[in-house]
Design brief:
- It holds the Pfam family SBP_bac_1.
- Keywords: Signal.
- With about 475 residues, the protein is of the alpha+beta class.
- The protein folds into two domains: about 230 residues, 3-Layer(aba) Sandwich (D-Maltodextrin-Binding Protein, domain 2); about 160 residues, D-Maltodextrin-Binding Protein, domain 2 (3-Layer(aba) Sandwich).
- A hairpin with a 2-residue loop joins strand 8 and strand 9.
- About 50% of the residues are buried.
């Protein structure tokens, strides 16, 4: 993955106007995958066809593919997917589509592949490009991509995450930059001033102190404290302090998070604990922290903005004016508001036949850049309005936001008052930085252990904890990697 410089801001400005979607662990506003369920298998790798898929006549394409299907709790998303399946089969009548609600899990993908149980088309997140490509668990779809007539309109910010050595291994869906969502109503009710968007760590701490009511079970901020989410949350502060997770030196991957910047970020977490502004039960995963926010039990939560917004609006009964989305706070005045850049992607199973891979690719991009895609989104917005619910679009779309199609989508959103949209000024502060290229989840897990030490004990030797975590990740994972 390549670093994102400040020049992407102009590409992303409209992204936050279109703003945030999801509201579940399904999307990669959280780094942890949900537990999988049994999924239909792709055809064995031993039976690929050498024939070119009949792309000039969709009615002649014959294949059976299994696709990623939203989990049962995502009723609206399932409705959208069912509509797409119906319309796809009108064009490709001989393609049978099997539904799988297995969600990608880095600890299970090897087992799924080995047992030939992975879906033909499955979801994954931004950190996994290098890993899946090197393991041979993602099909090289460069040929399919190059034949796609809309490829130049795809958002390069997302596409770059699965461009490995010039080859394409996934189809982008949507993305996010981690921010902080704040419950403005909680602050207003206590007469606490709302901090400026160009805020700092000190602003976070002072605001959290002012609104927290530990005796009533109300926290000022709820940083995630269990699962890989904890390490993921903390990494934003590492980046804001100017730190890095890893670096490549003389062909080797070297841990860099036990730096002065890392120590500074960990010291800030220690301050949050000492100030009693985090939940007494701090062992919160993504769903726990976002749920606490939606229930009004914490004033701030750190995540891709889409999840907290969706739950607060559609489950917590809040109104758009109750909520403010902030960039991550700068370590000090004048600093960058760096948040982890992530996203959702669709990967094609390399064990599938050529016909199945072709069908899976066509299904993945079926609604891309089409009027039918716009109509499907508008139908969903209307359905939510009928139910007195809000529609929260993706923070970063698969298409370029300033493109003709991006403007068409914006026009759809502008027609309805139940579409959540961000303020333009937020983008002038947002700074997205990709996750680590190697062993990201293992790094997150190691830092989760450190964070749990900080939150659970007094007088923790922070530097020693960081050094031990870096040593463990280095020896177990990084030392096994050779970078060409």
């Amino acid at each position: 993955m390549r670093k994102i410089s400040s020049v992407i801001a102009s590409l992303l400005i409209l992204s936050l106007v279109l703003a945030a979607c999801g509201g579940s662990k399904e999307n990669t506003a959280s780094p942890s995958a949900s537990s999988p369920s049994a999924s239909p298998s792709a055809s064995p790798a031993t039976s690929p066809s050498s024939e070119t898929p009949p792309d000039n006549d969709p009615s002649q394409l014959k294949a059976t593919i299994s696709i990623y299907y939203p989990t049962p709790d995502l009723v609206e998303k399932r409705a959208l997917e069912d509509d797409r399946i119906r319309r796809f089969n009108e064009v490709y009548p001989n393609v049978e589509i099997l539904k799988s609600d297995w969600q990608y899990n880095p600890n299970e993908i090897g087992i799924k592949m080995g047992a030939n149980e992975a879906p033909t088309l499955f979801n994954t997140y931004a950190t996994e490009g290098k890993f899946l490509a090197e393991k041979g668990w993602a099909a090289d779809i460069t040929e399919l991509f190059n034949a796609y007539d809309k490829k130049d309109q795809l958002n390069p910010i997302l596409l770059d995450q699965f461009n490995i050595d010039g080859k394409i291994y996934a189809i982008p869906q949507q993305g996010y930059v981690v921010g902080t969502v704040l419950n403005k109503k909680m602050l207003d009710d206590k007469g606490v001033p709302v901090p400026p968007l160009d805020w700092t760590w000190d602003d976070v701490l002072s605001t959290a102190k002012a609104v927290a009511a530990p005796g009533k079970g109300i926290s000022g901020i709820a940083p995630m404290g269990k699962g890989n989410e904890a390490g993921w949350n903390w990494t934003n502060f590492l980046f804001e302090a100017g730190g890095e997770i890893q670096a490549i030196e003389e062909g080797k991957v070297v841990a860099k998070f036990n730096s002065e910047a890392g120590l500074k970020a960990l010291e800030f977490y220690s301050k949050l604990k000492e100030a009693s502004v985090i939940p007494a039960d701090w062992a919160l995963g993504w769903g726990d922290a976002v749920g606490a926010f939606a229930q009004g039990r914490t004033a701030m939560v750190i995540a891709g903005p889409d999840g907290p917004l969706d739950q607060a609006l559609n489950q917590g009964g809040m109104k758009p004016e109750d909520l403010v989305v902030y960039p991550m706070p700068a370590a000090a005045a004048g600093g960058k508001h760096t948040g982890v850049l992530g996203g959702d992607f669709l990967v094609i199973n390399p064990n599938a036949t050529k016909e199945e891979q072709y069908a899976a690719f066509q299904y993945a991009v079926f609604d891309y850049f089409t009027d039918k895609g716009l109509e499907s989104i508008e139908t969903n917005i209307k359905a939510r309005k009928d139910e007195n619910k809000y529609f929260v679009p993706p923070v970063i779309q698969y298409f370029k936001q300033d493109s003709e199609y991006g403007l068409k989508m914006k026009a759809v959103y502008d027609k309805y008052d139940n579409v959540y949209q961000y303020a333009n000024e937020l983008m002038t502060l947002l700074d997205g930085k990709p996750e680590a290229q190697f062993n990201t989840q293992e790094y997150y897990a190691a830092m989760t252990n450190v964070i749990q030490e900080v939150f659970s004990k007094k007088e923790v030797d922070l530097k020693a904890q960081l050094d031990a975590a870096a040593k463990s990740v280095q020896e177990k994972f990084y030392d096994q990697i050779k970078v060409e």
